[in-house]
Amino acid sequence: MQIFFPKEEDQEIRTTILPEVAKKFVDLGLEVVIEEGLGSSVFIEDDLYSEVGAIISDSRDTAFNSADIVCRINKPYKEEIANLKKKSIHISFLDPFNESDLVKEFANQEVSAISMELVPRITRAQKMDALSSQANLAGYAAVVEASRTINKSFPMMMTAAGTISPSRVFVIGVGVAGLQAIATAKRLGARVEAFDTRPVVEEQVKSLGAKFVKIDIGETEETDQGYAKELTEEQIKMQQEGMKKICSQSDVVITTAQVFGRPAPRIVTNEMVQAMQPGSVIVDMAVSTGGNVEGSKADEYVFENGVTIIGMSNLPGEVAKDASQVYGANLFNMIEEYWDLENKVLNFDLTDDVLKGCVITHEGKVVNELVKDRM
Amino acid sequence: MQIFFPKEEDQEIRTTILPEVAKKFVDLGLEVVIEEGLGSSVFIEDDLYSEVGAIISDSRDTAFNSADIVCRINKPYKEEIANLKKKSIHISFLDPFNESDLVKEFANQEVSAISMELVPRITRAQKMDALSSQANLAGYAAVVEASRTINKSFPMMMTAAGTISPSRVFVIGVGVAGLQAIATAKRLGARVEAFDTRPVVEEQVKSLGAKFVKIDIGETEETDQGYAKELTEEQIKMQQEGMKKICSQSDVVITTAQVFGRPAPRIVTNEMVQAMQPGSVIVDMAVSTGGNVEGSKADEYVFENGVTIIGMSNLPGEVAKDASQVYGANLFNMIEEYWDLENKVLNFDLTDDVLKGCVITHEGKVVNELVKDRM
Amino acid sequence: MDISILVNLTYIAASILFIVGLKMLGSPDTARQGNLLSASGMLLAVVITLLDQNIIDYRFIAGALLAGGIVGYFAATKVQMTSMPEMVAIFNGFGGIASLLVGSAEYVVSPLNNPALMGAIYLTVLIGGLTFTGSLIAYGKLSEVISGKPFLYKGQQFVNGLLLLTILLVGVNMIFVQGMISPNETLILLISLAFILGILFVIPIGGADMPVVIALLNSFSGLAACAAGFVITNNVLIVAGALVGASGLILTNIMCKAMNRSLANVLFSGFGAVSDSDTERSEEQGEVSPISAQDAYLILEAASSVLIVPGYGMAVAQAQHAVRELGELLEANGAEVKYAIHPVAGRMPGHMNVLLAEANVSYDVLVEPEDVNPIMETVDVCMVIGANDVVNPDAKENEGSPIYGMPIIEVDNSKTVFVLKRSMASGFAGIQNPLFFKSNTRMLFGDAKETVSTLVSEFKG
Amino acid sequence: MDISILVNLTYIAASILFIVGLKMLGSPDTARQGNLLSASGMLLAVVITLLDQNIIDYRFIAGALLAGGIVGYFAATKVQMTSMPEMVAIFNGFGGIASLLVGSAEYVVSPLNNPALMGAIYLTVLIGGLTFTGSLIAYGKLSEVISGKPFLYKGQQFVNGLLLLTILLVGVNMIFVQGMISPNETLILLISLAFILGILFVIPIGGADMPVVIALLNSFSGLAACAAGFVITNNVLIVAGALVGASGLILTNIMCKAMNRSLANVLFSGFGAVSDSDTERSEEQGEVSPISAQDAYLILEAASSVLIVPGYGMAVAQAQHAVRELGELLEANGAEVKYAIHPVAGRMPGHMNVLLAEANVSYDVLVEPEDVNPIMETVDVCMVIGANDVVNPDAKENEGSPIYGMPIIEVDNSKTVFVLKRSMASGFAGIQNPLFFKSNTRMLFGDAKETVSTLVSEFKG
Amino acid sequence: MESQIILLIFILVLSIFLGVELITKVPSTLHTPLMSGANAISGITLVGAILSSGSSEIVTIILGTSAVFFASINVVGGYLVTNRMLGMFKKK
Amino acid sequence: MESQIILLIFILVLSIFLGVELITKVPSTLHTPLMSGANAISGITLVGAILSSGSSEIVTIILGTSAVFFASINVVGGYLVTNRMLGMFKKK
Ligand SMILES: NC(=O)c1ccc[n+]([C@@H]2O[C@H](COP(=O)([O-])OP(=O)(O)OC[C@H]3O[C@@H](n4cnc5c(N)ncnc54)[C@H](OP(=O)(O)O)[C@@H]3O)[C@@H](O)[C@H]2O)c1
Ligand SMILES: NC(=O)c1ccc[n+]([C@@H]2O[C@H](COP(=O)([O-])OP(=O)(O)OC[C@H]3O[C@@H](n4cnc5c(N)ncnc54)[C@H](OP(=O)(O)O)[C@@H]3O)[C@@H](O)[C@H]2O)c1
Ligand SMILES: NC(=O)c1ccc[n+]([C@@H]2O[C@H](COP(=O)([O-])OP(=O)(O)OC[C@H]3O[C@@H](n4cnc5c(N)ncnc54)[C@H](O)[C@@H]3O)[C@@H](O)[C@H]2O)c1
Ligand SMILES: NC(=O)c1ccc[n+]([C@@H]2O[C@H](COP(=O)([O-])OP(=O)(O)OC[C@H]3O[C@@H](n4cnc5c(N)ncnc54)[C@H](O)[C@@H]3O)[C@@H](O)[C@H]2O)c1
């Protein structure tokens, strides 16, 4: 069975797998093919891949055509799907709710498409959960980025030339990324506050030694996978009201709020940005799903009244090497989980909870209920 | 008595004083004049200065001419000195060992020039010691810069998708900046090692929880102010040999080695850089005094075989607001120390240890022994 | 010098040896010498007693001594280690019956009109007798000859009340009134009543509580000896008996405390009766064995390899600093200490790393499950600190479990597991954890930070 | 009932009250009730004794009791708080002379040929007498009537040896031989020798050690009472006397340990003689008062505001975690805890911030010198943890000092200062610190982490 | 006689207090050995038994002798068992 | 008589052990009050003094009476002083 790792587009700094992980695939008995220059963005030369037994292919199309499994980070171009072998498997982030065309194309080509963002949030599937593994690093990178951008130091320093006050960091939305952002900012010595609509989060925030901000917004819910449910209009208003003051006192605001399968909630309004101190920094980590911050733009630094709004859509790319390592590990864990060592094939059991969640198309049909509902 | 704070050149992000400090000068009974736009680089509008009683001047030259004290961060242009009032005082970093022309010009103008880098390293003078206050922030900024640049995370993370190993940071030269760099890298979760030629440093490194690397280079000395003395050729060789292995295993190398009044020692050779992993990062904090790293260039990111050599000459400018705050405080502490509250004049007592150290010219003569020796 | 002075001085010496011996028995380092000291006190007392000039015939004494000694020797040396508590119970019973016999023997030859003496004899016989049968029942329950279940019946209180009243009346008759019934009848009646009392006293108590009961009976047998001392006006009996009586009572109390119960609760409530629902659940899952921090300390103190397994509970309790300190103390004590970090422990990737780094735990001592699972058998103690799902053996054993297939830290393969948590509540995954019911698992209930701090102070002594 | 039985039972009750009272005196929470209990025991014993049928004439007794009571009352209530130790010494002396008098009284009326009785009288008089004069000397030294300096002379050992030998001979004569000198002479000789012994025993010991000496003399006066008990065959005297004798000895020992000396060292080496060089230095700078962690704990326990002043030594010892824990415990104990951070503490700007943040000390409790110096008088305890230069009062007082002019944390203005460091070594600036010699400063020597950890365990009990 | 009883009561009281004071904080691994060791001491009744069985009355002798028999089991067995238990506590 | 002395010695020994056991870990702020309290107890010699002075011999009466005087100073003063010292320990 052949597995192919095409090179990502140029703006992607991460790579799908590192040689160490490629070796594990080889050990599993797969024929591993990588596109030339796969690791160049993280300073890994092709040699290192061939050393562990991978084949370097200089023809992307040929490889697409012959591979039984294609793994990548970002969604493919529509044209590339046409190149894929029938009955092959394609694994990547897909954004299936918004990319109906791609999904249809996959079904047409009879390719089994797996969407990494739909790996269910159950304990057993955590090792394959790329959303978590990337969000985690993104949370770290967001803080590093903010600390780089702001013209203050994060920690407090009492020195002979006076006391440098610590930066105040406010994290909105405490999922995986938010928690890591809290942890990192705390480590660097900032005063950290955080807010989330899900009440269970309070204990988690405290378990990192940060302060949870209580804003009364009435009843909130979470799904059985721990995702937040969307708020009502009124609740959003209450939340914005409650946050305005904290934002205006904060040097750094990091927003991570997401709602599964929907555009990100708009939490920080322009009015709130105006109220902030000139020189402060906002990192909008939800910028690629619509943004939590009014005025944030993907992959831009927006200057608004002295406030810098950072809207990097690829924060994990800032720590590309680690991000590549864990993404590759996620892929490997998924394939290994369903790999039949004797027959060297994948056990494609659609009754399995994990596959049921993340397989979008199979044997020419859109099989995922959620995606089907939204098309 | 009038004190004037001219705006720095455009490439300087710091500013000489913040309004809070300006107020303290006003309270002391000085007439405080600032140049228009003084605080713009740190997002402070002129209003804030006038609110505390400072006068905003839109004519730099007039102000130069009428001020009894001129305070700034960087050394002046030669032409500006000619503008200064006779018997006035000029306080700034001066680099007097290399800028003999400026020194002579000051003497000619009968301006008393104080060089901030020559404030002696005695306990009593610590509050005026701008070298320390800036180096401290530079140490912090160097680590933030490195963490931003490297494509790995600093802390270790044991996650469902495998273990992300911690970055290894190696700090060479453990003065004020080095210590803060160690502390910051440690905080962020890196494995930190450090080396310095002065043996007393070992305990200090350990007091921050980092590891001290022992390299036998024979006898070393420090001056009575705690500055390192220059090594012999041979010692430098021994040191480089000992460091090569550590550098090659490190993800980040931060060099801060300085020798008082001399060019910075060349510690990291091109050979050592070649031996490092592609993707790793070097921050050369001594770049403005010649650089500890072969190939480093001031204010440039040099890519050398996959290794990024950061040579920012104005690292404190990365945390410009805090750097401005402490620099202003240093100035204030110095002037307050010698301020005669009754007569509203400065007590220019050249037998005082601190003034003896940092006053370069006075009453038309070069009075500083060290500077005189080097001219 | 008068021989009786010598005898008495020797008794004083013996008493001192008992006192010092008992003191030394209370600390692990000196317990063995303490026992030896007290034994030599006993030898001294017995030998000097044999010199008594009033003793007419030594043959019987020697014979009985020898016979008893031999029986005692074999019983003590041949018994299995695990049956030692039973053995102690039965020895104690023999001590009781011996006092009873001494009391009876004196009763037979004493004038009846000395209330003080009669009172002493009454107490000797009563306490001795009840100690005897009580100890036999305790023996039976421990060795499972008799069912260990608490034996309860209707009207129990009424029967007991009647019994106590009768005993009281016999006492009044014997000490003050005299002659309502003949002396011999009185004696036999008293002995029977004492025997019955002993049985009825112990039989309702559950087998698990027997150690406490034996300690109490031991205190009684001391009191019986003390009473016998009054009967024959012998100081060493009084001193030794009273020492044992008092210290036994204190020890009983300490043992109750260690079980987190009161003495009254042990004696007067059938154990099973209190917590019916508990019993039911534990029948499903097996039984949970809690342990006190002090005992955990003793085990840790002896461990030469310790694996710390932190989880979300450590973060909630913010126990990381205390844990680090404990780790350092364990290392100083000569143990090898590692921290096993499960990839999903906590609530975010690397959660444990953040906390342990904050507490200054070196990266070098962090290990991953893959590395440590293969050598888990060699680990003396695993300390599971607020972790739950990540050490749940269901993940490898129970196909039906929602976490089946997740790699875990297989702490159940180590020699001893301590689980530090506040309750039997479940973790993130919301499922019960069979680890808690394994035989090598001990639950250290309480907030993790407090528990670990207690361990730390134990180590600091 | 026979009155003597009543008396004796009451004596038993009194003894129990003494025992319980003494026990309770050993813990701060119960000490006061303990004293009351023991006092009621004494009242009981005295009242019941007055019922004794052999007493012929109550007049003198009543008079003496009243007179003594009044003197005692005024002495005890009028004395200055600071002179209480002297008062205890003199009271103790009176107890000793009372025993001596009892012994003498019995001697006069007793048959001489009872060695046991004679032995008891001998001991009563000897110990009572030496307690009396010894206590008087101690009183003198404490109240500075006599010089507090240890009084040493050549041939001291010889004189003492001779004295002891004579005393021994008198004893042999009194107990066994009889008649070498007349009974009256014997008594007078014995009393004189006892008096001289007491003087010679105490006079060579330095004033600073007097508390230990008084504790020891107190133990002696207990023994004297005990011996008197043997003289008049009275149990309560024996029990109470022996209790005091034994517990006094233990207490003496505890006090020596608290001073880090052995009893022998206290008694037999002139304090000054041991450490001549020390004395010299301390004459320059004043004296340093070390304190044990246990005592520091007691002061901290009572403090309602505590200021922690960390310095480079805390970093070297890596004590930040322990310090944070101590701070939390102090807060839990009701104290207000702040950390005063000096701008140049440590070896880099913000050094303390890094460490305290690592240990999770909230930023809110960090204060700067400017904020805390003005309210320093209200601080109960300043804990200076490994700081030196930053708390050096020379910076404001001594113009010649190289650090003159540097603002410092003026801990010397607080009520009590604890300085935690390992030795008298100087800090970065290399200069001596007069703070260490101030009267409100106590040095807590040792590695800062260990010391703080000890304090922490003290708090956890 | 009476004064003697008083003294014996004194002794009793003191012993009880002493017994209470002696046992304070015992680690629970020592509970069983301590109990067992105390049990052996309570075999002191052996001394009484010897004195009883030395009488001339036949009933007394019989009772006394059996008392000696039982008490000596208690003493010998008790000390030996305690010793065995404590043997397990030897330090590593 | 002799048997009585034996008993008294018994009592003495037990009391000594008890005294030792009673005082274990005393915080040093309590050292002085404890010493003072124990000193007051040692004034028990007052009981002996009363008994002595109740005699009919004149010398004994004189000696005894002075003993009563001194001992009662010790007792009354001792307890009062102790109480005063302990008064300073009242909790905040
Ligand atoms: N790491 C990640 O990225 C991540 C993200 C989301 C979810 N998860 C899930 O979280 C779980 C992590 O497993 P885990 O073993 O670390 O934790 P866990 O299974 O959630 O168990 C934590 C245990 O700690 C105890 N506890 C809580 N507070 C305590 C305190 N103050 N003192 C002592 N014990 C305390 C609780 O029991 P008591 O209440 O009885 O004390 C609880 O059983 C996994 O199921 C994982 O899938 C992980
Ligand atoms: N903050 C800065 O930026 C900076 C930079 C350079 C120099 N300095 C200078 O450093 C000094 C700082 O003052 P400081 O009060 O913090 O420190 P310090 O004056 O240097 O005194 C530190 C004290 O800590 C004690 N110590 C060392 N290790 C210890 C341990 N393990 N346990 C307990 N005590 C220990 C030492 O006494 P023992 O040896 O007796 O234990 C020493 O006296 C100032 O003079 C300042 O000018 C500061
Ligand atoms: N069991 C597992 O295996 C597993 C694995 C990973 C994550 N999780 C859990 O899943 C949950 C979701 O994590 P995630 O990072 O994917 O979440 P996410 O990226 O979907 O959302 C980020 C956070 O934004 C919050 N949010 C949504 N709307 C908000 C609003 N209006 N204001 C403020 N905050 C808002 C959400 O509550 C969430 O915490 C977390 O609880 C996490 O612990 C579980
Ligand atoms: N007492 C005070 O008031 C005061 C104030 C500030 C600093 N200081 C002390 O002054 C000293 C110097 O501090 P600094 O930051 O100004 O130093 P610096 O900037 O002059 O030099 C930085 C470090 O480089 C080291 N170095 C020099 N040559 C080297 C080589 N070949 N290899 C490795 N390292 C080399 C030096 O030892 C020094 O530690 C420090 O010890 C500091 O604690 C004292």
The major sheet of chain C is characterized as:
6 strands, parallel
Instruction: Give the distance, in angstroms, between the N- and C-terminal Cα atoms of chain C.
Output: 49 Å
Mean pLDDT of chain E: 81
Number of helices of chain C: 19
- Identify the most extensive interface between protein chains: D-F, 107 and 79 residues
- The rough form of chain C would be described as elongated
Indicate the proportion of strand residues of chain E.
Answer: under 5%
* Total count of helical runs of at least 4 residues of chain E: 4
Number of domains of chain C: 2
Principal-axis shape of chain E equals: flat
Quote the distance from N terminus to C terminus of chain E: 55 Å
> Can you count the beta strands of chain E?
0
Radius of gyration of chain C using CA atoms only: 28 Å
Explained architecture:
- The complex is a heterohexamer, with two copies of chain A (375 residues), two copies of chain C (461 residues) and two copies of chain E (92 residues).
- Chain A is of the alpha/beta class and 375 residues long.
- Chain A has two domains: 2-129 and 319-374, Rossmann fold, CATH 3.40.50.720; 135-318, NAD(P)-binding Rossmann-like Domain (Rossmann fold), CATH 3.40.50.720.
- Chain A has helices at 19-28, 46-51, 60-66, 78-83, 100-108, 130-149, 176-188, 201-207, 233-249, 270-275, 320-338, 353-358, 369-374, and strands at 2-5, 31-35, 55-57, 69-71, 89-92, 112-115, 157-159, 162-164, 168-172, 191-195, 211-212, 252-255, 281-284, 301-304, 307-310, 339-340, 345-346, 359-362, 365-366.
- In chain A, strands 3-2-1-4-5-6-18-19 form an eight-stranded mixed beta sheet, with helices on both faces. Chain A has a seven-stranded mixed beta sheet with strand order 11-10-9-12-13-15-14, sandwiched between helices. A two-stranded antiparallel ribbon of chain A has the order 7-8.
- In chain A, strand 1, helix 1 (19-28) and strand 2 form a beta-alpha-beta unit.
- In chain A, helix 1 runs parallel beside helix 11 (320-338), helix 6 runs parallel beside helix 7 and helix 6 (130-149) packs antiparallel against helix 11.
- Chain A is globular, with a radius of gyration of 22 Å.
- Chain C has 461 residues and is an alpha/beta fold.
- Chain C has two domains: 79-268, no CATH class; 281-460, Rossmann fold.
- Chain C has helices spanning 3-25, 31-50, 58-78, 84-109, 115-142, 156-177, 183-202, 210-231, 235-258, 263-268, 271-274, 276-285, 293-302, 312-317, 320-332, 351-358, 369-372, 394-397, 448-460, and strands at 305-310, 336-340, 366-367, 381-385, 416-421, 441-445.
- Chain C has a six-stranded parallel beta sheet with strand order 3-2-1-4-5-6.
- Chain C is elongated and about 85 Å long.
- Chain C starts with a helix and ends with a helix.
- The model of chain C is unreliable at 270-284 (pLDDT under 50).
- Chain E has helices at 2-22, 31-42, 45-53, 58-87.
- The longest helix of chain E has 30 residues, at 58-87.
- The mean pLDDT of chain E is 81.
- Classes of the chains: A alpha/beta (375), C alpha/beta (461), E mainly alpha (92).
- The E-F interface holds E 3-4, 7-8, 10-11, 14-15, 17-18, 21-22 and F 3-4, 7-8, 10-11, 14-15, 17-18, 21-22.
- The structure holds NADP nicotinamide-adenine-dinucleotide phosphate (2 copies) and nicotinamide-adenine-dinucleotide (2 copies).
- Residues 311-313, 316-317, 344-349, 351, 386-390, 420-423, 425, 427-429, 447-448 of chain C line the site of one NADP nicotinamide-adenine-dinucleotide phosphate.
